[in-house]
């Protein structure tokens, strides 16, 4: 039996790579159902100040095609920034997040809010040596 029933993680998932796959596989190992929120294009351009390579509908489609993902859906800036909105929408037991957020004021507050609803946060490490930003830089330098 897995530790959680419904797990949720959220990200841009542009230029899908093995780091993304490693993350999703680790999430799925801990839950029966894995829901993935895909940040909309507005979030990528307005908040991350980047231009996505693949538009939001294609990124959602790619994630929904993966056997490790039970369901992927586009999420708004508000749902990405306020994890309580995501919790109320998707009704998950656990949020999977990068370990770089652990101990931050934002996530300490979220942990307290989640505790009232019986939800947890699992912090996962990133795959070393790969990122979408690095891939984009490598492509640019090879032109």
State the separation between the terminal residues, measured CA to CA: 49 Å
Which CATH class applies here? Alpha Beta
Q: What's the tally of helices?
A: 7
Average pLDDT score:
93
Give the C-alpha Rg: 15 Å
Number of domains: 1
Query: Uncertain spans, ≥5 residues at pLDDT below 50?
Result: none
The strands making up the biggest β-sheet line up spatially as: 3-2-1-4-5
Any guess at the CATH architecture?
Answer: 3-Layer(aba) Sandwich
> What portion of residues belong to β-strands?
15-25%
Q: Please count the beta strands (DSSP E, at least 2 residues each).
A: 5
| Strand/helix succession | EHEHHEHHEHEH
Principal-axis shape equals globular
Q: Can you say what the CATH homologous superfamily is?
A: HUPs
What is the topology?
Elements: E1 4-11, H1 18-30, E2 31-39, H2 41-46, H3 56-64, E3 71-75, H4 77-81, H5 83-90, E4 94-98, H6 105-117, E5 120-124, H7 132-141
Parallel strand pairs: 1-2, 1-4, 2-3, 4-5
Question: What do these coordinates show?
Answer:
The chain is α/β, with parallel strands linked by helices and 143 residues long. It has one domain: Rossmann fold. Helices cover 45% and strands 22% of the residues. The protein has helices at residues 18-30, 41-46, 56-64, 77-81, 83-90, 105-117, 132-141, and strands at 4-11, 31-39, 71-75, 94-98, 120-124. It is globular, with a radius of gyration of 15 Å. It starts with a strand and ends with a helix. The mean pLDDT is 93.
């Amino acid at each position: 039996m897995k530790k959680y029933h419904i797990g949720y993680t959220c990200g841009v998932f542009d230029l899908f790579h093995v780091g993304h796959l490693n993350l999703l596989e680790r999430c799925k190992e801990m839950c029966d159902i894995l829901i993935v929120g895909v940040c909309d294009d507005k979030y990528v351009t307005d908040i991350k100040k980047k231009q996505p390579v693949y538009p939001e509908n294609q990124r959602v489609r790619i994630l929904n095609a993966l056997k490790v993902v039970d369901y992927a859906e586009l999420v708004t800036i508000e749902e990405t920034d306020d994890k309580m909105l995501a919790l109320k929408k998707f009704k998950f037991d656990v949020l999977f997040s990068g370990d770089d957020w652990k101990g931050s004021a934002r996530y300490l507050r979220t942990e307290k809010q989640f505790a009232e609803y019986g939800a947890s946060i699992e912090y996962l490490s990133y795959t070393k040596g790969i990122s979408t930003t690095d891939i984009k830089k490598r492509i640019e330098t090879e032109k």
